[in-house]
Each structure stands twice: as structure tokens, then as C-alpha cells.
Amino acid sequence: MTATTATTPRAGQQRARILDAAQACFVRDGFHAASMASIAEAAGMSAGLIYRYFESKNAIILAIIERQLRDKLDNIAKLAEDPDIARKFVDFFGRLRRGDPDVVNPALLLEIGAQATRDPQIGAAMAHSDRAAAAALGEWLRQITRARGLALDDAGIRARGLALQCLFDGLAMRAVKDPDLDPALLAAALAAVLPQLLASDPASPHSRETAEP
Description:
This protein folds into 2 domains: 1-55, Arc Repressor Mutant, subunit A; 61-205. Helices cover 70% and strands 3% of the residues. It is built from 9 helices and 2 strands. It has helices at 9-29, 36-43, 47-53, 57-78, 85-98, 106-116, 120-147, 154-177, 183-197; strands at 150-152, 207-209.
């Protein structure tokens, strides 16, 4: 993926600096219009130095996908510390709206998604990232539903995990379409939906109540 590997703190800082600059350029100019020269200028370094860490724009995109996956997994892990997922969604939307650099930029997500349809390597990286996030989310769902006395089979876990992923993806697009969305309205909308994902559904073949010990 890269011309060199971040084996030292200095190298890791340089890579992060390049990725931050590249993300800003991709959002501002689009993937194809952003050049390695413009990324170098935004990063405040020479293009030659960038090539020491990334051999191409594709390599930068792959590294961005990898970094976003680490952020997703970290956020999913934090659900175990604070299982109030509705509040997490509202907080996530606020961070999107503020342009928090630690969450995916909706415009960048669209740029990478469009490139994934044209580049098999990027498409494969996005698919891998999605599967890894789904697996981590599924494990969290198993833990929280088990703690609530609800046993779900694998199909039920996958269905509910997919619904949560769709909500996250939809919020990213909503931040573009409706950046002034009232957080109270969003919280009310989530309150109408999320309990159905985290509680039993007697009509569903994928769930069953278990007796409390």
C-alpha cells in the first residue's frame, strides 16, 4: 500500500500529516482533480517526500480507508463502555456537522465510494472495511442483547447490524442534505426506531426471549 512503512513515531506523524492534507484536498477538489503536488502543498512538504510514504493517490486512499476503519472499530468498542446508542448517534451527527476530523467526511465518503466503483483495489478495501465493522458491531449486539435476556441467531444479528450500519451511513448523507437538523428531532426519530432493533420481536423467527438467571 505504501512506499515505506510507519516504523517510527516520526514516520507515523508524517503519514498522518499527509493523510490529513489529502483528505482536505479530496473534499475540496475531488479525487481526480487533486494532484500529488496539491496534496504536498497542503501538507507543507515536497512531493518527493510524499512519495517516500505513498507511491500514488490510490495508496493514500487505501491508507485513509484503513484509518477510518480503525476509528470505526474504536467507536464500536466504546459502545461497551456507554451502551446509549441513541446518544451516540446524535453525537455522531453533531461531529459530522462540525467537520470533526476524527469522523468520516460525508463528501470524502462519496468520493471514495465513487472511486471504488471504478477501481477494484479500492472497492476490495472498502468491502473489507465494511465486513470488519459489521463483525465488530455484531459482537457488540450479541453482548448487549444477551445482557438484556434476548438471544439472537446469526441471521438476527446480521439483520440488526445492517440496520444500524444503514443508519450511520444515512446520517452521513443527512449531514450534507440537512446540516441544520434539530438534534432534538433526531433524538425523537431515533427513539422511535432503535428500541425495535435492541428488543425482542415475537413475530421474528430470528429472536427468542431467554429466562433471566
